[in-house]
Amino acid sequence: MAVAVSIWRREAMFLTAMLASETGIVGLNTLFKVATSKGLNSYSFLGYSYLLASLLLLPSHLFSNSRSTSLPPLSFSILCKIGLLGLIGSTYVITSYIGVKYSNPTLASAISNITPALTFILAVIFRMEKVRIKERSSVAKVMGTILSLVGAFVVVLYHGPRVFIVSSPPYLKFPQLTPSLASSNSDWIIGGCLLTIRDIFVSVSFILQAHIMSEYPAAFTVSFFYTLLVSIITSSAGLVVERNNPSVWIIRFDITLICILAMGIFTPVYYVIHSWTVRYKGPLYLAIFKPLSILIAVIMSAIFLGDSLYLGCLIGGVLITLGFYAVMWGKANEEKTRLEKENSPRLLNHNEDQS
């Protein structure tokens, strides 16, 4: 009985942590959308928040490096690869938050679920994966990729009629928000295209990050340099783009400061939760919760932004979610087959030794 209670508590802890992380990331997108209406600039937001995140990660980086004796030296080659990762990361965070500014958090959450499909396409292009039509897992990944891409096109290009309108309490609404994005299809399409570009770069960064971690398996060190580089690159880009508007770098003591602090503090926490979950539950468990962000975004956008849910977003979100789970099922099935092949010779040798 005690063992069962302990297992239940452990599972509840993982579930709570994942729900909190998905709610947190959607909440940040919603808070950013509100803060932009108060004058928050995307470049200053990213520069300041990632600088704070890197400062919070610095003690973990120093502590983990001082205790580890098995790590290889941090060579110039690895630093260059981390630098490339920082450049790619800067590109996708810039396109991400500008995309949210043009659209809304619901669209951002829906499109984020095409990342496994885009990663699969890139892995096939770079010959990291092979398409085998005779295998169910490979067919599932191909079909899931097609469904995800079709869903992305639907959610971006087809707005459609309103499915439902939520009238949130007046004390939860932010009265000085920009006009509803429902009246601007062009902004919606621009935002959707930027968010799709973001997920292409996210997929590339996943592949590069896996390569870096195989050569230098120090997660805190890689994360520290990554967040520091993103802060430097986004700030540099902002200095160029906003060179005639230096006032964007002035931090005001209002919701813009809250947004920067929330992003800077949440980034390391989000990383720790995901690293902890992947270590003990595996990447598939982590991925299962991603489509949930669409529902969270719909609720938050309706309550805090007064957004309505449109038919195009609903249909596209369903297609993307189905495609997401098809790709993840294919990956899980391939991993299961691989482990069975690896274990079968060991089992055979064990049986021969016993006989």
Provide structural commentary.
This protein is an all-alpha fold and 355 residues long. It contains twelve helices and two strands. Strands 1-2 form a two-stranded antiparallel sheet. The radius of gyration is 22 Å and the shape is globular. Residues 169-183 have low confidence and may be disordered.
Record keyword descriptors for this entry.
355 residues; mainly alpha; two-stranded antiparallel ribbon; 12 helices; 1% strand
Mean pLDDT: 80
Helical amount among residues, as a percent range?
over 70%
Instruction: Report the β-strand fraction as a percent range.
Output: under 5%
Main sheet characteristics? 2 strands, antiparallel
Low-confidence stretches: 169-183
Distance between the termini: 39 Å
**Derived structural class:** mainly alpha
Radius of gyration over C-alpha positions, nearest whole angstrom: 22 Å
SSE order, one letter for each helix or strand: HHHHHHEHHHHHEH
> Helix count, per DSSP?
12
Overall strand count: 2
Shape: globular
How is the largest sheet built, in terms of strand order? 1-2
